[in-house]
Design goal:
mainly alpha; 5 helices; 0% strand
Length: 220
């Protein structure tokens, strides 16, 4: 996706020094758009490390095969020049002309600086998209893994709750069976006690209901 400033025009000045008289009648070339200087293509690059690790910007440029030209003038060099203590406080037009003089003296065209700027910008944008995809892929992978763990937890909890319910039902069944047997036992003992009561002054039959460890015997 092209940025808005790619459609801007490249601003140039006449070369510094005496113009060639033979070129006086030559037509002035039409202004070029940034997109005309550098084709709208993206560098082929992939992240060399995890998105969680900061990547040095020089490594991004290296991955995009952006090398410094022999004359040494890049857009980063121009940025340093503009921040020089000698011209940084000057008006914008003065700073522009000062840089143009330096570029002309070194035989560097403005379009070369523009091309370098666009290539670096596209490299940064491309690397950002690559890292973003890496982050999104990791986020999706992590979400899927977390959901799988959540499902395992839910399944395990359901299994354990089922075991708890089964144990509770089993214990309740045993308690109910025991209570029913105690009722039959008590009835049987009362029948025996009643029958023997006609022949003894004090009944030797106990009708105690044995309770758990927390309670004593219920003797009646």
């Amino acid at each position: 996706m092209s940025k808005k400033w790619y459609s801007f025009f490249v601003v140039t000045d006449e070369p510094v020094g005496q113009a060639d008289p033979s070129a006086a009648s030559a037509p002035v070339p039409a202004p070029q758009r940034v997109s005309d200087v550098v084709p709208d293509t993206e560098p082929d690059m992939a992240p060399s490390r995890s998105a969680a690790v900061p990547v040095d910007l020089s490594a991004v440029y290296e991955a995009a095969k952006i090398d410094a030209p022999a004359h040494g003038y890049t857009v980063l060099k121009v940025a340093e020049m503009l921040q020089s203590e000698h011209i940084r406080a000057l008006p914008a037009e003065v700073k522009r002309k000062s840089v143009m003089v330096a570029l002309d003296a070194a035989g560097v065209k403005v379009t070369e600086i523009v091309e370098d700027a666009v290539r670096r910008d596209r490299a940064l944008d491309t690397y950002e998209r690559v890292l973003l995809k890496s982050v999104e892929d990791l986020r999706a992978q992590t979400a899927a893994e977390n959901q799988r763990i959540e499902d395992e937890i839910a399944l395990r909890v359901a299994e354990l709750r089922a075991r708890i319910d089964e144990n509770t039902k089993k214990a309740k069944h045993e308690e109910d069976e025991f209570a029913a047997w105690q009722a039959r036992k008590r009835q049987e003992e009362e029948t025996i006690a009643t029958a023997i009561g006609y022949f003894v002054s004090e009944s030797p039959i106990t009708t105690a209901r044995i309770t758990g460890n927390e309670g004593g015997a219920d003797v009646r």
